[in-house]
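Weekly puzzle thread! Below is a chain. First person to post its structure in token form gets bragging rights.
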Amino acid sequence: MDEPGKLWIGAGIDPQTRERTGEPLALEAPDLTTHGAIVGMTGSGKTGLAVVLLEEALLQGIPVLAIDPKGDLGNLLLQFPELSAADFEPWVNESDARQDGVSVADYAAKTAQTWKDGLAGQGIPPERIQRLKESVDFTIYTPGSTAGVPLNVVGSLRAPTLSWDTEAEALRDEIEGTVTSLLALVGIQADPISSREHVLLANLVENAWRQGRDLDLGALIGEVQSPPLRKLGVFELDAFFPPKDRNELALKLNALVASPSFAAWSEGPPIDPAQLLSTEGGRPRCSIVYLAHLSDEERQFVVTLLLSKVVTWFRGLAGTSDLRALVYMDEVFGFVPPTAAPPAKKPILTILKQARAFGVGMVLATQNPVDLDYKAMSNAATWLVGRLQTERDKERVLAGLESAAGGVDVSALGTVIGGLEKRQFLLQSAHEPKPAVFQTRWAMSYLRGPLTREQIATLMAARKGQPAAPAVAAPPPAPASTEPFIDPAAPAVPPAEAAAPAQPAPALGEHETPVAPQVAAGVTVYHLDPAAHWAAQVGANPASTTLHAALAIRLSLRYDDAKAAVDHAEEWEAIHLLDQGLDLSQGIEVDYDPRDFRAEAPPGAVYTLPGVPLAQSTFFKQAGRDAQARVVESRSLHLFRNPALKLYSRPGETEEQFLGRCDEAAQREADAEAAKLKDRLGAKADRLRNAIADAEARVHELEEQERREANRDLIAGAGAVLGALFGGRRRNRDIARAAERVVSRGSDRTFQAQAKAARAQTELAELEQEILDQCARIDAEWDENGRAIEPLEIGLERADVKVAEVALVWIPR
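Winning reply:
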């Protein structure tokens, strides 16, 4: 279990029987220097596998830098060696307890017993959890917030220690990523080559770093107004970027710095990978950078800065073949897309290409493999593939496996992946002789789901020298209140200081209120981010502060048909506007995820009261049940089948693709039937060919013999004829008949042999025509069979539809 260099992640499974073999499955830690990918749909157990992998790396003394866009990785701090109900109680979800029909305390006791039994069943003693807890320094960093340990992103413009003589390319890459993401924060989408703003800032940073000067954002703004440069390229600075335009850029950057919400960006330790991965005493660290509270632009900013610093850090290290550190990114969607180049993409690809030589491994996780760049996929030598949502996802993963590993049996792997269950994964590694199927081991950390900022504040209070917040039952994973987040780390404001001059209240409509309406306990409340790709579909107006209520409903669907060999899971999501009450027939189907929402309302928000009882939990429960019933009645999985071939299309497979597969199958059947015809008639054809050869040989032999006899008889006959003519009184008829016998003596036997050969040739020709006719018939029949497809609808039972979420969404309209 604890062999040096072994990362124990699960137990093997027989791919045929799907039974556990009992054989432990472990990765070699050095293998991760060639990087890895974890792929699986929601509910596949992907996050649990990631937590297990990180636990194992940390137990081996390998430090971890984990980037957490969703908030799941904070679960690594929920380690309870005593496995007592009291330890679990503050962290279980109240909603789960209510759904189970028990109190929070009873649900915590049940959860504790489940964890105790699960760990014991796999031979994991409490002492192993204690060792993990004591041997690693766990920290959750929250850039832009003081909920956890803040991270000084603004102060991360310090000059690196690398030499410009040898590492100019790496240093410029860091500058490029930093400037691109910084400009994105102020709404400037800057091209590194053509953008004046980007060229100016990049030159200012490089100039300072070459002189060994550290920068912060304030100093950079000052240099924008009065640059310590005379030229940019061949142009005078003022001609390339006039002072008036530079001042506008400085004002935009200053507005960012002056914003109260940006103050937290300059607090905490600076981004320094060496400090994030190890304490001063050499103790390994697990640094979790929590991003769930940030906008997409802010996430790109942080990830770009962080990973650019990682690149410059490892470029200053000595080479090694051991795994020195592991960088893990949970849900890489939007950071390494195949058709775009967001700021974070470049440092990610740089790590995948260059970090191996320095002992730094990267593992990327995603539930959307179609959103991964091929270059990223081909640089991952270790793949851990779980259940996938669509055939398109599976095809993308198989293409990545073929590109990364080479020589793999793609069709066989596709069959294995299609049969995976929850917590089961396919391991395909370039370092292993063959693929393996396994089930993940039980996580030592409590997997309670995404942590809120309040929960992170409780976990990190001791790190910031503050008393921990009182233990209370944890809310659902997503924010369940529209009240603004009060940072527990922020100093209390005396009432006298908090008071502000009264402002005239804006005029409100009849059904409008500046106070968020009460919402039933346990119901998740979101505020739509107007940048969500589907915002226009629901009529969102980014400039509006008038919020309208809607329901976000997510259902988990499972289509199961044994005859069609279909076991397909998918999610159905829709937004239902509540202005005129709830009408499920008017739902707008969208593909939403947590990144489309914000926890807080926009400043000055006004709420439009809907005509539904938001304070009653029964309203939300009934909405979920009604949506469930409606989906059962209205949705089905559209497939095709070919009765003659007994083939069924796969989910996501087009009619054209299915016809192509049927045509291939029909050709195989036609070939098989033609082979039987060949076996049956081929022997007869061979006998006829042999008979023809024998007859032709006999004809040749008789013709040779006939020529020899004809020559001999001609000489003898000539004497007889001459004698008859000149020496006797023979009649003319007798002389003519004697001559005729000389000519035709062997002709009968030759003619018979020739006739025999001709009969055999005729029979062979007739047989060959029969074979051609039969082959044409076979081809026509199976061609028709290949095209004989018909539609097939696989419906849903109520048990096939689970209500995953019914949440309230406030939409600016």
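Puzzle host: Confirmed. Bonus trivia for everyone else. Residues 276 and 479 are 28 Å apart (CA to CA).
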